[in-house]
């Protein structure tokens, strides 16, 4: 007998959060429930301040699900969510004001209608997109977006047709990094025309929300927005679509693995122990969602003094490589902590485009070639 969502909910209604006294279901903590054969995955949305304290509740939830007949594997992931009331769902309204410092893609139309749900498949391959490469990190600020942008530009420079989907709902930074502003247009009200710069086709949640406004997303809204960005964007023919994920583990990662066929994931970490501990969680999460980790990148690896050339290992060195070896994933390379990487990213021209012959740009090109050579990009 196969397990149903109702069975899972009933089991979780008996798991009590000792800190709040309520059970997982009535407290509103239960987010996405995914059932595939005997495998059950659930997301628990928790107050970020309580994060670690909720681990035992997640384990108890797993045990309760695992005890159900027909369940072969159970996993509960914690995701940080605000308790604030939900913001309205994104209104993917095309205004045709997209602007790239390079050039934008698609005709600029007048104000469009709110986007209608297109009658397209909601899972499986995305038309015209050969591969999807997810870029994740266990914690924020390790340079995942910087790496995604430079990798995208490097892959384009190697002759690949590249798309970049900025799914970092908590801090979309790709429009700034790729020098793209304004809103994408949707002349037919069904399909969004993405913008393009430095040879990369971009769609970002940041192009749909004001840059200076914090966005609070609840699970279902998030999933709807991700779904639209995957399937209602006119990506054209792509060799690879890079997805810049939010830091950590949670709904977006789970939704992506359910709604699209992800070819592989790359995990970015700094060499600090704490970042590596978090990177391990990201690796574990990809494993749980059945996504193959195709490589690790160590960012902010060493600092080369621009004055004297002396190399300093500010955050230590080599931890990501050791972790990659431990899990049997390829180590793709190290990116130094470098002022040009930051300045060019902030200026909307990733270092691979701004200084193509610099050692940092060449590192990204080398990583791009490794991914192409292995068939992942
Ligand atoms: N190798 C590097 N050298 C110098 N600065 C870097 C490097 N990598 C990233 N940075 C800088 O560190 C900051 C954080 O980088 P970024 O936004 O790419 O991180 P992230 O992991 O995507 O963070 P978020 O949590 O916001 O998603 C940015 O100011 C970026 O310019």
Automatic annotation (TrEMBL):
Residues 5-75 form the MIP18 family-like domain. The keyword Hydrolase applies. SUPFAM superfamilies: Fe-S cluster assembly (FSCA) domain-like, P-loop containing nucleoside triphosphate hydrolases. InterPro entries: FSCA_dom_sf, MIP18-like, Mrp-like_CS, Mrp/NBP35_ATP-bd, NUBPL-like, P-loop_NTPase, YlxH/NBP35. Residues 79-124 are annotated as: Disordered. Signal peptide: none annotated. ATP binds at residues 138-145. Gene3D superfamilies: Fe-S cluster assembly (FSCA), P-loop containing nucleotide triphosphate hydrolases. Keywords: ATP-binding, Hydrolase, Iron, Iron-sulfur, Metal-binding, Nucleotide-binding. Pfam families: FeS_assembly_P, ParA. GO terms for molecular function: 4 iron, 4 sulfur cluster binding; ATP binding; ATP hydrolysis activity; ATP-dependent FeS chaperone activity; metal ion binding. Binds and transfers iron-sulfur (Fe-S) clusters to target apoproteins. Can hydrolyze ATP. Homodimer. In the C-terminal section; belongs to the Mrp/NBP35 ATP-binding proteins family. In the N-terminal section; belongs to the MIP18 family. PANTHER family: IRON-SULFUR PROTEIN NUBPL. This is Iron-sulfur cluster carrier protein. It comes from Paroceanicella profunda.
